[in-house]
């Protein structure tokens, strides 16, 4: 792979990662403004609306519940708001006070996931809905507003608004998700336990930073009843064994386009530790539905001196760190 597309994507992901932090900073900074608008709001509408409120920018990152209002000051052709919640939350989005001209080409579309540089998270392989059902298009919806609920902790709104003073308000609410499957981590360090109980599905935990991953527990192929699970063969690759965990590295967000760094298909505890020097590091659990599968892991950001020196080396291990 030539260095250029990687480098571009790297920039994009880096800026998104930076915005993750920045977004929180800005929101904190504007919290006092938010309170002022809340006060006047309360006088107008009564006290049921005790939610954070701030303007929405054409390119934005939202990490809190609240009302976010966009008003075009000039034609805005390509805007996007990235929304992220905690791993065990999903996101509900609702549009209100919409004044856009659909017939003139304006649009507002909500997406169940993130799209970065044309790549989707979760990938089509890991999401339970077909791609077209993951979009909610305000202009083609029939109801008075448009609502959407994400399947994981990330969602997105794309919009194009051409006439000045047109706009909309987006209500973001985070809801508890008792069975998180796909997750985008908000932070470069933490820990997580992913469980897939008797479901034929795949779940990816994505960390858009270069990290060291340490698997602390892996339990695969636990039989449905309490009978002993058959002695498992250790495969050179795991795809023949039905249920397995793969560690992936890459510079985009679509897990189906990332490089396998390691495959694990036997139960272990506290063994695997791996540095992945890519912009995106993923733990992906593949489940046949026959078993309760469970993987726990910890991760931390790689220091600058731990990053691979040359990214152009060989394809296979370009982001594996010795
Ligand atoms: C899970 O992933 C595997 C390998 O990537 C794929 O063969 C399988 O079809 C996927 N399962 C589902 C339910 O999408």
TrEMBL record:
<dbReference type="Pfam" id="PF05428">
    <property type="entry name" value="CRF-BP_N"/>
</dbReference>
<dbReference type="GO" id="GO:0009755">
    <property type="term" value="P:hormone-mediated signaling pathway"/>
</dbReference>
<keyword id="KW-0964">Secreted</keyword>
<comment type="function">
    <text>Binds CRF and inactivates it. May prevent inappropriate pituitary-adrenal stimulation in pregnancy.</text>
</comment>
<feature type="disulfide bond">
    <location>
        <begin position="278"/>
        <end position="319"/>
    </location>
</feature>
<dbReference type="GO" id="GO:0051424">
    <property type="term" value="F:corticotropin-releasing hormone binding"/>
</dbReference>
<feature type="disulfide bond">
    <location>
        <begin position="102"/>
        <end position="139"/>
    </location>
</feature>
<feature type="domain" description="Corticotropin-releasing factor binding protein N-terminal">
    <location>
        <begin position="51"/>
        <end position="175"/>
    </location>
</feature>
<feature type="signal peptide">
    <location>
        <begin position="1"/>
        <end position="18"/>
    </location>
</feature>
<keyword id="KW-1015">Disulfide bond</keyword>
<dbReference type="InterPro" id="IPR056177">
    <property type="entry name" value="CRF-BP_N"/>
</dbReference>
<dbReference type="InterPro" id="IPR056178">
    <property type="entry name" value="CRF-BP_C"/>
</dbReference>
<keyword id="KW-0732">Signal</keyword>
<dbReference type="InterPro" id="IPR035914">
    <property type="entry name" value="Sperma_CUB_dom_sf"/>
</dbReference>
<feature type="domain" description="Corticotropin-releasing factor binding protein C-terminal">
    <location>
        <begin position="183"/>
        <end position="307"/>
    </location>
</feature>
<feature type="disulfide bond">
    <location>
        <begin position="181"/>
        <end position="203"/>
    </location>
</feature>
<dbReference type="InterPro" id="IPR008435">
    <property type="entry name" value="CRF-bd"/>
</dbReference>
<dbReference type="GO" id="GO:0005615">
    <property type="term" value="C:extracellular space"/>
</dbReference>
<comment type="similarity">
    <text>Belongs to the CRF-binding protein family.</text>
</comment>
<keyword id="KW-0325">Glycoprotein</keyword>
<dbReference type="GO" id="GO:0051460">
    <property type="term" value="P:negative regulation of corticotropin secretion"/>
</dbReference>
<feature type="disulfide bond">
    <location>
        <begin position="58"/>
        <end position="79"/>
    </location>
</feature>
<feature type="disulfide bond">
    <location>
        <begin position="238"/>
        <end position="265"/>
    </location>
</feature>
<dbReference type="Pfam" id="PF23541">
    <property type="entry name" value="CRF-BP_C"/>
</dbReference>
<protein>
    <recommendedName>
        <fullName>Corticotropin-releasing factor-binding protein</fullName>
    </recommendedName>
</protein>
